[in-house]
């Protein structure tokens, strides 16, 4: 009898999720009007948005990182702001400040660009630690304090930070502990040759289709709540925990050769974000339950910035990606 209830339950959840996630295709179609290829990046943006997380995008200049989040904010009827991080930026330039008003002999609050649904922090590693931590605090607490007043940020609130892997002179790399606050770190590659031909043609014509708002902010908030209802079996939970624990204690998972290559493993934030991202991925695929493939689809983006590699690994040209691949191939799939 118990099993029957379980299946009915999953069936109901599945139907609900299928209905709730109908907008995903619309949103993808709308974004594809402007973004050519880069399906991986667009999907990751949606995972960040639905999972109430933030994204760190790494890629060389000109890969449509700014364009992607701008297009997303147009397709979702939300507000967008862009902060170009530079070495002379101050925390007040991000969160806002108190301004003295001579007429009224009083201070008034001028809110900064962080007060938007979609915030693009361009080249986050170009600004000093003070500015980075002001942004990261707002990301974590979802609130900002200016003077003695605290403001709750609008929902949904998605920060997409970009960093450039080339030219590291004069940059302030994000400390490992800070990077951990990003739900996903996505590495973007160059487009394929036929995609780039399409991009060149569209740019030369100067004709890009207009992006229309196809989803309301209210729909996104409903979807964020629905994602939490996606069913995750205990076997999948165990699978996620095995992957995370293998980054901490590889020797317990027949991966002793990884021990000298890892300086620290993923934190509990890694487990939470891997489970959330897997649920979001299932939601995007319009399914009411998580399968192992969902976990495998997002594991690199969730973990690549959460595994510390030792000097030994660097000497052997082993990256956190290689370590994740080895772990995923070794851990038994439920």
What does it look like?
- With 334 residues, this protein is of the alpha/beta class.
- Helix content is 48%, strand content 15%.
- It is built from 14 helices and eleven strands.
- Strand 3 (96-101) and strand 4 (106-111) form a beta hairpin.
- It starts with a helix and ends with a helix.
- The protein folds into two domains: 23-219, P-loop containing nucleotide triphosphate hydrolases (Rossmann fold, 3-Layer(aba) Sandwich); 230-330, Magnesium chelatase subunit I, C-Terminal domain (Helicase, Ruva Protein, domain 3, Orthogonal Bundle), CATH 1.10.8.80.
- The strands form four sheets. It has a five-stranded parallel β-sheet with strand order 2-5-8-1-9. The chain has a two-stranded antiparallel ribbon with strand order 3-4.
